[in-house]
Specification:
two-stranded parallel ribbon; 10 helices; 62% helix; binds zinc ion; Fatty acid hydroxylase domain-containing protein; transmembrane; Fatty_acid_hydroxylase; iron ion binding; transmembrane helix
Length: 280
């Protein structure tokens, strides 16, 4: 985040926002700046990518499903914005710790002992590590001792839209984002790669809620897509994964997507419309 902070400082904060007497290195100024940048970045990413996905990818026929709630999109957006706001406090504490130089993030490829292959290895490592951690955190959030207090808020949306992607209880959202923050404190990672992966995971979260259930054939068994995740919203105890189906297979919670077997939300709507046309 130090690069983001430097860009924000040089282009906006130093010339237009803060008094000249407030040093860029001041801890309080850095925390306030990180908080502003985190909130603004997260909201713009969520609303921007969410809206593009909602208008160009999400099939609006899904809103005719009987389990689609009244004012659902409004509820999803409201819960997401509230969650982003509260999540930003512990998130900024971690970002500040990182900006202070306590992580294993590095600037130049030459600093990686494995060079470019090490960068690609770190991307694979990041995806594997975060997918594994989120799987187990997500399972913990479904445990009866925690479910109704935290994770239930995300599951009120049975037929999610892209805007459900960030609609969590703030503590639930933060716990599920924790693996992304922990990774660069354990493993070396290039700063630009980290930032790109952070944007990627936000977009991925949107796409698994976007109701586009198509997946290229050979990837159905490997990738946890929107078809898998809508079954998680509908049937709860299946497909907890984030990107891959690996940990669901290991943990015995894999369910082949209903939408790919002619029993998904679209099929249900088609059946209802056919019945309605028949009775007219
Ligand atoms: Zn869940
Ligand atoms: Zn979801």
């Amino acid at each position: 985040m130090d690069h983001v902070l430097n860009i924000a400082d040089s282009s906006i904060f130093t010339p237009y926002v803060y008094p000249a007497s407030w040093s860029e290195e001041g801890a309080l100024r850095q925390i306030v700046s990180l908080w502003l940048v985190t909130n603004l970045g997260a909201v713009l990413l969520f609303l921007g990518c969410g809206a593009l996905n909602f208008y160009y990818v999400f099939d609006h026929k899904l809103m005719m499903h009987p389990l689609f709630l009244k004012n659902q999109v409004k509820q999803e957006i409201e819960l997401s914005i509230i969650s982003i706001f509260w999540m930003s406090f512990p998130t900024v504490a971690i970002f500040f710790w990182e900006v202070q130089g306590n992580s294993k993030l590095f600037d130049n490829i030459s600093e990686s002992s494995l060079g470019w292959p090490g960068v690609f290895l770190s991307i694979a490592g990041f995806l594997f590590f975060t997918d594994m951690c989120i799987y187990w955190i997500h399972r913990f959030l479904h445990h009866k001792s925690t479910y109704k207090h935290l994770h239930k808020q995300h599951h009120i949306f049975k037929i999610p839209t892209p805007f459900a992607s960030h609609a969590f209880h703030p503590l639930d959202g933060f716990l599920q984002s924790l693996p992304y923050h922990i990774y660069p404190f354990i493993f070396p990672l290039h700063k630009a790669v980290y930032l790109s992966l952070f944007v990627f995971v936000n977009i991925w979260t949107i796409t698994i809620h976007d109701g586009d259930y198509r997946i290229p054939g050979p990837l159905i068994c490997l990738i946890n897509g929107a078809a898998h995740h809508v079954d998680h919203h509908l049937f709860f105890n299946y497909n907890y994964g984030q990107y891959f189906t690996l940990w669901d297979r290991i943990g015995g919670s894999y369910r082949h997507p209903s939408a790919l077997m002619g029993k998904g939300p679209h099929d249900h709507i088609r059946k209802l419309m056919a019945e309605a046309a028949h009775t007219q």
